[in-house]
Amino acid sequence: MEQTFIILKPSAITRGLVGDVLLRFQRKGLQITGMKMIKLDEAILREHYAHLVDRPFFPWILSSMMATPVIVMVLKGKDAVNVVRTMVGATNSRVAAPGTIRGDFGMSGQENIVHASDSHDNALIEINRFFKPEEIFDYTLTTIDALYAPDEK
Ligand code: ADP
User: Is 98 exposed, middle or buried (0-12, 13-18, 19+ CB in 10 A)?
Assistant: First the structure.
């Protein structure tokens, strides 16, 4: 099983969408293996968004992501990275497909509710960036036999 890293951004916290987003992930069958509320600072955001630090909108990302605490989480499931990216939708919420989290809950390219890792390798890096090993839990999901065929587990 693969793990992926999620941030419920200040737009989700402020707008009271935490429960709606979590409900979607849980109904899908993803297992929460780590979750906590933290305050992001500039240093960790420069690392996390290193690919965007030279873009003109980067200062807005900083202030937006530090506006409130965020909830970070690790979700586990078969092909979890791609499954979650598909559920999250395109970066710009206005063009994200209906049925996706951004497509259903947002109107902004920046205030787009949720971050999700974009590859298996980046998921490992991001999980290590935000979680200590002892903050990730390995427990049995009792619904596993109903969620997957024997060769999918
Ligand atoms: P994604 O979050 O879909 O993986 P990126 O890694 O390209 O997308 O961007 C990271 C975050 O930076 C986006 O989720 C969004 O909050 C913000 N962002 C990206 N592009 C823009 C833009 N053109 N203007 C404002 N904010 C942006």
Answer: exposed
Q: Give the whole-angstrom CA distance, residue 72 versus residue 44.
A: 13
Q: Which atom of ligand 1 is nearest to the CA of 65?
A: 16
User: What is d(CA 46, CA 151) in angstroms, rounded to the nearest whole number?
Assistant: 40
Q: What is the pLDDT of residues 10-37, one digit of tens each?
A: 999 999 999 999 999 999 999 999 999 9
Which helix (H) or strand (E) is 8 found in, with range?
strand 2-8
Dist CA 109 CA 96 (whole Å) = 10
Alpha-carbon distance of 74 to 7, in angstroms, equals 9
Ligand 1 pocket test, pick from 61, 93, 118 with the greatest ligand atom count within 8 Å of Cβ, gives 61
Which has the closest alpha carbon to 5: 29, 33, 44? 33
Q: Which residues belong to the active site?
A: 115
List the one residue out of 63, 5, 72 whose CA is nearest residue 38.
Answer: 72
pTM for this prediction: 0.97
